[in-house]
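Quick one: structure tokens for this chain, please?
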Amino acid sequence: MGKTLKQVFDLFEKKIRMAVSPLELLIIGAVVIVVIMWGPKKLPELARALGRAKKEFDSAAKEVQEVSKDLQSPIKEIAEDIEKESTAIRTDLRTESSSPSTSSKARQGGSKHDILTSTAKDIGITTEGKTRDEISRATVAEASKQSDRDDSHEGS
């Protein structure tokens, strides 16, 4: 036989190092520490608690994914609607800026916004930077003034 005890121990140590990775040693060490701290009777309870926590985490993660999927479709539809509207507005603006007299086109079948804008411009109201509501109020006020003037001229 001729091997000393130290040689046998060194050979055994090399084989153990190859058989057990550092991660496995870490896990074994953690289990030993848990058993020492809480005792072997608490170990099943701790495992159950970890299992429940993992189950709750997985169900919450699944719910978040479902909500995310549910929200993607409406958000995509809204984005498409916004894109369509902005394209229509750009087209309208290009059309308005390219033709000097848009009032006749608007009255022939343009959108309500075009009709309101062209009417306001016809009676001398500036529309730049104003909302549709502001333009509408100004148009009604100016039309009332003109109507009052016409009535006062006819009554004289």
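The two ends are 140 Å apart (CA to CA).
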